[in-house]
């Protein structure tokens, strides 16, 4: 898809679809050019430190405030509360794994209606915590838009190419890419196949499926590199934000859906939410190609912690501790000597939700399929299955490239993640015998004889 982008992460961008739309001085002139309205959208408090402050000025045909009253919008699979007493929650410390997920009636759904909550922690009202969702849909949103007052949404496609329309322009997001749409920004998610078909407004397309990490506090950032130095991991220049593009269909009715306190609300308006002719600021949605990640690893022995695979992080108030890290496991060379090379057995103080985008993850011999997922909650022991352990323990330790043609990801969090009843009972995809993956691990211990 031939779309134009602006490169950089956290940059101050300026873009105008019509020349002369941006003010020559200031942000809110008495009379903006071309009869536009100036509107600011804030991603942080006005008084946030300068290096943290995020906001954008939009120059639009109609102001966002011009809409009909709010009304509830019913949704059966989005969960508002992750407290243990919530009727939608079935929390467990058990190691969990799902076969490739899908929503049974996905042919009836667009992106919003096709969202299903798998789990989460915290409370969006006090802006602390996260939620993990799965999406499954075949229909375009057409004249329907969505914005999230609860948090930022990181979208990870697995099946189907996405066209994400935003107030700032359009993003093409196929598998092996991600996109982030921040709190309060309006967007629509369509399948590219349906978008390009003749007369395809709202028409059925091949299924689009993937995962969403929603963070209630702060925003995703690039992780600090520390001793790694100036280069490595995800480079800021490889992130792409849209250039301005606008709709001018003031006679067409649009439906706007808002996620607020875990629930959904809707209103109608007689103009497109994508009528922004120009914008200026650093609060802008973006996409990233995961294949551009610069993987770091050991060239002597052992292997560093999986934090070296972090693409984006949403930090908590505790230094070095994340509300959510977005981590990937791309194809990479393993060369470490005298080292068990797959991920070792461990009990983590973080919770690990993993998803498989494509191929075979090198730490699991079977059962972890593209479109599938796993959850190893805080302090739940996990590691390679019996077959992977046996193979890795006896392999010749020569340089080898693992993960060719594969890509898995992880949402890692310092929170205990409460799973939903949909994830545990209603999805029909939970592997009931996942616990057996480790039962074939044999006893190898031989007590040493007495010292001479």
From TrEMBL:
- List the pathway annotation: Amino-acid degradation; L-phenylalanine degradation; acetoacetate and fumarate from L-phenylalanine: step 4/6
Cofactor(s) needed, names only, are: Fe cation
The terms describing its cellular component in GO are:
cytoplasm
Key word Disulfide bond present: no
Q: Which Pfam families match?
A: HgmA_C, HgmA_N
The Homogentisate 1,2-dioxygenase N-terminal domain, residue ranges:
4-290
- Which residues of the sequence carry a binding annotation for Fe cation? 352, 382
Q: Domain of life here?
A: Eukaryota
Question: Which residues of this protein are catalytic?
Answer: 303 (proton acceptor)
Q: Which residues form the Homogentisate 1,2-dioxygenase C-terminal domain?
A: 291-445
* Residues binding homogentisate: 346, 361, 382
Q: Which UniProt keywords apply?
A: Dioxygenase, Iron, Metal-binding, Oxidoreductase, Phenylalanine catabolism, Tyrosine catabolism
Q: Which GO biological-process labels does this protein carry? A: L-phenylalanine catabolic process; L-tyrosine catabolic process
Q: Known EC number(s)?
A: 1.13.11.5
CDD domains, from UniProt?
cupin_HGO_N
Annotated segments matching region Disordered: 1-32
Q: Record's InterPro entries?
A: HgmA_C, HgmA_N, Homogentis_dOase, RmlC-like_jellyroll, RmlC_Cupin_sf
Q: Name the SUPFAM superfamilies for this protein.
A: RmlC-like cupins
The Gene Ontology terms for molecular function here are: homogentisate 1,2-dioxygenase activity; metal ion binding
Q: Which NCBIfam families match?
A: hmgA
* Entry's family note: Belongs to the homogentisate dioxygenase family.
Name used for this protein in its record: homogentisate 1,2-dioxygenase
Q: Please tell me the species this chain comes from.
A: Acaromyces ingoldii
